[in-house]
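Running this now, will post back.
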Amino acid sequence: MRYTGAWALWPTWTNGPPVSYQIRPTLPADQFHPWVWEPTAPLWGAEAWQDAVLTAARTVNRRLQQKLGRHDVGEMDLCMQAFDMKDPVAGKPLLRSDGDRNTPSWRARQDGAKYLAAGAFLALRNVAAHEDAVTWTEQEALEHLVRTHETETASPLTR
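Update: finished.
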């Protein structure tokens, strides 16, 4: 089921929704993290939505591998390991959110980054890579790019 907007929630409006419900945010894709937008822009311009999402995910994966010096693992497994809260071991650096690591908020943010990043690879990259033809609209593909962007920006990526 798709959300049809505030209009469906208040069918008694006779002159349409209030002005506050008519204002829609805009999302300038060229302000995404460069890892996401730079390799994606030419594909986006060609309306190749599936290829754009796949390229963004692959680029973020490769950059995370480079940042961590980890080429033995990638995508979902890399994110699950890199954002884990355990102590680091030699050759397997971890990514940490800023802040006090002893607070529930920090632990929630760290776990959230881990599952958000891993989920983006499972739900977006894998679908884009393994389906012959994904029927994403431009809006749906843009929302998927946002999720890929969040994979990169979910944590400040400090060791």
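The helical segments are 6-9, 19-22, 34-45, 49-68, 75-82, 104-130, 138-153. More later if anyone needs it.
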